Amino acid sequence: MSDSDIAARHLAAIAIAAEAGDLARRQFLDRDAMTITFKGPQDWLTQADRQVEELVVGRIRSAFPGDACVGEESGGTEASSVWVIDPIDGTSNFARGVPHFCISIAYMRDRRIEAGAILNPITGEMFSARRGHGAFCNGRRMKVSGTSDFRLATIELGWSTRRSIEDYTRLLARVVSAGASFRRAGSGALGMAYVADGRNDGYAELHINVWDVLAGILMVREAGGWTNDFLAGDGFARGNAILAGAPGIHAPLVEATCIAA
Ligand code: IPD
Ligand code: CA
Fold first, then answer.
1. How would residue 84 be classed by pLDDT, with cut points 50, 70 and 90?
2. Is the dihedral of CA 138, 205, 152, 253 positive or negative?
3. Does 87 sit in the ligand 1 pocket, CB within 6 Å?
4. 20 to 30 Å CA-CA from 119: which of 13, 57, 112, 141?
5. Cβ distance 257 to 242 under 8 Å?
6. 211 alpha carbon to ligand 1 midpoint, in Å?
7. Does residue 39 sit in the same domain as residue 120?
8. Atom 15 (ligand 1): residue with closest C-alpha?
């Protein structure tokens, strides 16, 4: 695949995220009309998740008919040329009127993440990255934080019911005992984009799915940060632990989280 084919997909990811963002924003602002269900305890689903995914997948299929799509709501399988979509990441926030959610779209070729776009349609922040070409927020180049003292760091610790509360509280206790502050804002994709932009010094979660983090992994790396090998083993199909951060806190973050990186 040529450089211009990748460039076209990068631009398409941004344009499709923008269009999907309009749909998500309209639905967020009309909460009385929102249909809310649960896939399981604390696992929210709204009609917007499905509608936004349909829009994104439809646009990708008509622009790049030979590419595969894997989405949080419609599933799909890995292929050599594959798009990975989270239509609304931060659905619990979205459903409860908290403006911290996003559309996340990643493009991967031969197991290399080539392009990604993450849009918060309420703040209007479009985070984007292309492998080898940097990461940007609304056109401004992003850079991970320069923090080198773990006692000055803020780490986002993602949580879901897919891992036990004991494992989560142990992780939290170790990170805080090592001196860092923590937050859990409810969107893994935005949490990773915030690492890329130096708003979080790191992001850790004991299990997360590929659609939540693929675009964000590229952003962190392109902004000068590091991540674990999320795709190792069955990571694409079954999810994995994620760890990402700024270079200056690599050793203490690995030690505190016990996630290899
Ligand atoms: C969840 C969010 C959350 C993360 C979970 C994800 P959803 O996705 O990204 O921050 O901690 O692992 O499942 O349900 O909001 O699309
Ligand atoms: Ca998600």
1. very high
2. negative
3. no
4. 112
5. no
6. 10
7. yes
8. 90
